[in-house]
TrEMBL record, chain A:
Family the UniProt entry places it in: Belongs to the CPA3 antiporters (TC 2.A.63) subunit C family.
Organism: Pseudidiomarina woesei
Keyword DNA-binding tagged: no
Residues that span the membrane, as ranges: 6-21, 28-50, 70-91
NCBIfam families attached to this UniProt entry: PRK09094.1
Coiled-coil ranges from the UniProt annotation: none
Name of the featured protein: Multisubunit potassium/proton antiporter, PhaC subunit (TC 2.A.63.1.1)
Lineage: Bacteria, Pseudomonadati, Pseudomonadota, Gammaproteobacteria, Alteromonadales
Keyword Transmembrane helix attributed: yes
From TrEMBL, chain B:
The UniProt record lists the keyword Repeat: no
InterPro entries the record matches: CPA3_Na-H_Antiporter_A, MnhB, MrpA_C/MbhD, MrpA_C/MbhE, ND/Mrp_TM, Proton_antipo_N
Start and end residues of each Na+/H+ antiporter MnhB subunit-related protein domain: 787-909
MF-aspect GO terms: antiporter activity
Location of the protein in the cell: Cell membrane; Membrane
Residue ranges annotated for the NADH-Ubiquinone oxidoreductase (complex I) chain 5 N-terminal domain, each copy included: 65-110
Cellular component annotations (GO), alphabetically ordered: plasma membrane
Transport among keywords: yes
Protein name, per record: Multisubunit potassium/proton antiporter, PhaA subunit (TC 2.A.63.1.1)/multisubunit potassium/proton antiporter, PhaB subunit (TC 2.A.63.1.1)
Segments crossing the lipid bilayer: 30-51, 80-100, 107-124, 130-151, 163-185, 205-230, 242-264, 270-290, 297-316, 322-346, 367-389, 409-430, 451-476, 496-520, 567-587, 599-619, 626-644, 650-672, 684-706, 785-807, 813-833, 845-868, 888-915
Keywords, ordered alphabetically: Antiport, Cell membrane, Ion transport, Membrane, Transmembrane, Transmembrane helix, Transport
Length: 114, 929
């Protein structure tokens, strides 16, 4: 299970990095959003993978680590704020410059075609 | 205390000339001179004590953590230099008053002058090496301002830049050297460094420290091969040249050598480097002084030569040589300042400094001629003038050293040759200007300058003669006080004019005769010298500077292409390079913790996540498809959370996912509809490679963590959640209680992000397509009836659920974050189903206020605990019995959670509702003020 989990996180990271390396703003925002999923999963897993041990004090013998969960919960909300901010920024840039190209127009990479 | 005042007066007084700019020049000069004289007077008042062997000190802590304190001392060496700085400074100020024309801004001139004077005083009185360095840099800056005083002349600007570049670079080297020394000695205070002298000399870092310090000293004192800046600094007004380039600034390097001699000196390395540099500089300067046609150029090269002489004496480092060096510092300052002033007078009166034009001025300027003869004789080392004494002491020392083994005889021979050249150019100065036939084509008709312009020169010339005749009476006290500081050996100050017929006297005679002979045959020598191609130092310097800037420009252009993609790729590449070796060092990735068995559900889930993620990346040109794939990933992530015992996370993720996908679909409306062409193959390959590496690293790290035993601090939270926080949902208790401060910060960030978005949307001119890419118009039914009906039915249900989730949050999965998001999602549904107008009509509420009220509630809940004398955010709870509900808990934490709840609603709706309004008449606009 651990290997499966780690592979999933690795794949999510790889796909999001690929998206972040695109030259248009929308794929980049999608990439950032996905990267935040990967990061959240990574942080969450520092409490190790535990099944059926909810961090609710009750009639259980043991509990999973609640601290990473608390951290990730706020991270999810902050991640949303960041996604929202970057997508609105992309819209604003598109409105101001008329393009969603992220490179400088005169840079050697900016063929305007990615 | 008065020591600090002496040093600070020039700095404070530097504003006076600027303030008095509108007043008469006399007023400005008087102010400057008064300040200098006050400082000088205070110095003289302290002088007797210093001469008696006391060392007045001043100490004030400044930045003790850096080893930097404002600590000053006035020992013999400081006194010698401080006297020169203030004494000659005073004369220069008087002279400058007559030298500057009406058109020159004398306020600026005197302000810079005072700044420079204070910096120099700081150098020579610093008791802390870092403080010394600071003043050192101040002299570089103030001399830059002074050299570039006539900034409308391009050669003045160039000369100033060159001086700043060279001395500034040397200053940095000096700082490095000082840091090394201070590190070895454990302190930057001079006392401690002197005490650690042996340790420093035997330390393995001695040589680097020595080289760095020498680099600083040699650049400042224009020693070979850094001598080239000094002649170009002659573009400065002549009083500046007289002050900076004879008496003070260039002496700072010499001072540093003398100051650190007890620490760094008397080693073979010191001796070899310093002596040879001095010797080379002396010969180089003397030779080129002979051919300069500009009066100030001649004096500049002669200054280089004499500085070389002093450096060489400091290098030899015997007691006699040190004494000779100190004595020559004094003598050189007197005659060279005088000579520069004479050059200035000639320039002022005739309008020219060109030796080819000037001649026969003895009739027109008889008085000046007498002064020129006296000071030049002193420079040439004619008996009965002060220059003679120190030069003869040099000859004595050069014959007595045996430091170069069988080649030691070279030193006195070369010293004699240097002295011959010195005599030759001194004759040239006098003979070339004042004798031969009377010049006719001068720009001005020369006549004697005002008395007060000559007075400083007269005083200096008198000193030359007085010290030359009675050295023991005038100079012995201060020299012996300075010697006690510099010389680690026992010494005796005994300067006599007549030592009988001996080798040094013969050398002096040879130098005089040889000098006359060289001058007589100067034309042959000149044509000989013309055979060689002389590179102008200015061009070489300019070329070096140009090469450096071009190279860095090219480098910058290559690195900074304006392509963000390339920057990110480079950053990732560098990260990989740094992380890979660390990963290699782990040896074994599997940490040995017991693995959890894999079940079928997990495998299917993982496959879906991975495929969806790959799909998101692969279909990124088809944006809507890509977005749908992303939402699959998000939902699967939420399932992963619930699978691994994190219900709170799952709920949060679920709602956030819904909200952000809605937001992105909205955004898609404003994005270009045309699908751009694919990237080139090479770029895709590069990106896949980078992405693969990063993903592999993250996955490996994750695996390494997962398979290692957990060691968490969470035991505390689990144990204290109920007793301390009054809740059984530990995650929620951590959020609102244990780590409530973090949460407060986090909702603040959320609110700020929302405010930022609000601002970004202001006055936005979005692209609003009226049809899709193929020209089909949007569907005319904006709000389908079915959705309207269902959404209206859902709203009360959703609100009830959110209240329930909110209230139970402390004990069961839920809480402010989740409840807030649910409410927000329900509201967004209303906007989507019924349109902005419909919602505005029924619920016109300002979301900014809601978000800020939320943050405020959370903040004041925290502050409330202060009222009860508790720490910030301490929570309190009790249980009450409600009639129907039963046992119910009331905790202040729930108030805090209410703040979270309101902030999340406010922020989310601020973002989405505002953005959704973009296409309607409610779109945000900048209000007119």
């Amino acid at each position: 299970m651990e290997a499966l989990y780690a592979t999933t996180v690795g794949m999510l990271t790889a796909c999001s990095i690929y998206l972040i390396l695109r030259g248009r703003s929308f794929p980049i925002v999608i990439g950032i959003t996905m990267l935040s999923y990967a990061v959240n999963l990574f942080l969450f897993s520092t409490g190790r993978l535990v099944m059926n041990e909810l961090p609710i004090i009750g009639n259980q013998a043991s509990y999973t680590d609640p601290l990473p969960q608390a951290l990730v919960l706020t991270a999810i909300v902050i991640g949303f704020a960041m996604t929202a901010y970057s997508i609105i920024l992309a819209v604003r840039v598109r409105g101001e410059l008329g393009t969603d190209e992220v490179n400088e127009p005169d840079s050697s990479d900016a063929e305007g075609q990615r | 205390m008065s020591l600090a005042i002496i040093v600070l007066i020039p700095f404070i007084a530097a504003v006076l000339p600027l303030l008095a700019r509108q007043r008469s020049r006399l007023m400005i000069t008087t102010l400057t001179a008064t300040a200098t004289a006050t400082s000088f007077g205070l110095l003289l008042a302290l002088a007797p004590a210093v001469l008696n062997g006391e060392t007045p000190q001043f100490f004030a802590t400044w930045l003790p953590s850096l080893g930097l304190d404002f600590s000053l001392r006035l020992d013999g060496l400081s006194l010698l230099f401080a006297t020169l700085i203030l004494g000659i400074g005073l004369l220069i100020i008087i002279y400058a008053h007559y030298y500057l024309s009406e058109n020159d801004d004398s306020g600026r001139f005197f302000a810079c002058m005072l700044l420079f004077m204070g910096s120099m005083l700081g150098i020579v009185t610093s008791d802390n090496l870092i403080l010394l360095w600071m003043f050192w840099e101040l002299t570089s800056i103030s001399s830059f301002l002074l050299i570039g005083y006539w900034f409308h002349q391009s050669n003045a600007r160039r000369g100033a830049r060159m001086a700043l570049a060279i001395t500034g670079a040397g200053g940095l080297a000096l700082l490095a050297g000082i840091l090394l020394i201070g590190n070895i000695a454990g302190s930057y205070q001079l006392e401690a460094i002197f005490a650690a002298a042996d340790e420093i000399r035997s330390h393995s870092l001695y040589l680097p420290a020595l080289l760095l310090v020498l680099l600083g000293a040699f650049t400042k004192s224009a020693q070979f091969p850094f001598q080239f800046w000094l002649p170009h600094a002659m573009a400065a007004p002549t009083p500046v040249s007289a002050y900076l380039h004879s008496a003070t600034m260039v002496k700072a390097g010499i001072f540093l050598l003398a100051r650190l001699y007890p620490v760094l000196g008397s080693t073979p390395e010191w001796f070899t480097i310093v002596t040879l540099t001095g010797l080379a500089t002396m010969l180089f300067g003397a030779y080129f002084a002979l051919f300069k046609t500009d009066l100030k150029g001649l004096l500049a090269f002669s200054t280089i030569s004499h500085l070389g002489l002093i450096t060489m004496l400091l290098g030899l480092g015997t007691a006699g040589a040190l004494l000779a060096a100190l004595f020559h510092i004094l003598n050189h300052a007197t005659f060279k300042a005088g000579l520069f002033m004479i050059a200035g007078i000639i320039d002022h009166e005739t309008g020219s400094r060109d030796l080819r034009k000037l001649s026969g001025l003895r009739k027109a300027l008889p008085f000046t001629m007498v002064l020129a003869v006296i000071t030049s004789a002193s420079m040439a080392g004619v008996p009965l003038f002060n220059g003679f004494l120190s030069k003869e002491m040099l000859f004595v020392e050069s014959t007595e050293q045996h430091l170069f083994g069988g080649l030691s005889w070279l030193v006195p021979v070369l010293a004699t040759i240097g002295a011959m050249l010195s005599v030759a150019y001194s004759i040239r100065f006098v003979h070339g200007v004042f004798f031969d036939k009377v010049a006719t084509n001068l720009p001005k008709q020369p006549h004697e300058p005002p008395l007060m312009m000559r007075a400083p020169v007269i005083l200096l010339a008198m000193l030359c003669v007085a010290v030359g005749i009675a050295p023991m009476f005038f100079a012995a006290d201060i020299l012996s006080a300075a010697m006690t500081i510099v010389s680690p050996y026992s010494f005796e100050v005994d300067i006599a004019i007549w030592h009988g017929f001996n080798l040094p006297l013969l050398m002096s005679a040879l130098a005089l005769i040889g000098g006359v002979a060289i001058y007589a045959n100067r034309d042959e020598l000149l044509s000989f010298s013309r055979q060689f191609e002389h590179h102008d130092a200015k061009d070489v310097f300019a070329r070096i500077v140009k090469t450096v800037t071009n190279t860095s420009d090219n480098l910058m252009n290559r690195i900074e292409t304006g392509s963000l993609q390339r920057y990110i790729a480079a950053m990732l590449g560098i990260t990989i390079i740094f992380v890979l070796p660390e990963l290699y060092n782990i040896v074994q990735l599997d940490g040995g913790r017991e693995h959890m068995p894999v079940n079928a559900v997990s495998i299917v889930g993982a496959i879906i996540v991975v495929l969806a993620a790959i799909g998101t990346a692969a279909f990124h040109h088809q944006r809507l498809t890509s977005l749908m794939m992303l939402s699959v990933v998000g939902l699967m992530v939420s399932l992963i959370f619930i699978h691994f015992s994190a219900p709170d996370l799952a709920m949060t993720q679920l709602v956030v996912e819904v909200v952000s996908i809605i937001l992105m679909i909205l955004a898609l409306f404003f994005m270009p509809q045309r699908i751009p062409k694919a990237s080139s193959g090479g770029r895709v390959a590069r990106d896949i490679l980078l992405a693969g590496f990063v993903g592999g690293i993250v996955g490996s790290l994750n695996y390494a963590i997962l398979t290692r035993p957990a060691n968490s601090i969470s035991e505390f939270f689990l144990a204290n959640s109920v007793s301390g926080g009054g809740g059984t949902n530990v995650v929620n208790v951590i959020l609102v209680d244990f780590r409530g401060f973090d949460t407060l910060g986090e909702i603040t960030v959320l609110a700020i992000a929302a405010a930022g978005i609000h601002k970004l949307l202001n006055n936005l001119r979005p692209f609003m397509p009226s049809s899709d890419v193929d020209g089909r118009p949007w569907h005319r039914v904006k709000h389908p009836l079915l959705v309207q009906t269902v959404s209206q039915a859902i709203l009360p249900l959703a609100l009830m659920v959110s209240v329930y989730i909110f209230l139970r949050g402390h004990n069961l999965p839920g809480g402010g974050f989740i409840a807030g998001l649910i409410t927000a999602a329900a509201m967004i549904l209303q906007y989507m189903a019924n349109g902005v107008d419909w919602v505005k009509h029924r619920f016109d509420y300002n979301y900014q206020t809601l978000a800020s009220v939320g943050v405020m509630i959370a903040l004041f809940t925290g502050l409330g605990s202060w009222v009860f004398g508790k720490n910030f955010l301490t929570s309190w709870f009790t249980h009450v019995h409600w009639p129907i509900v039963g046992e119910f808990e009331i905790a202040t934490a729930i108030l805090f959670d209410l703040g979270v709840y309101l902030t999340v609603i406010g922020a989310t709706l601020m973002i989405l509702a505002n953005f959704g309004q973009m296409t309607t008449r409610h779109r945000p606009r900048q209000e007119k003020h």
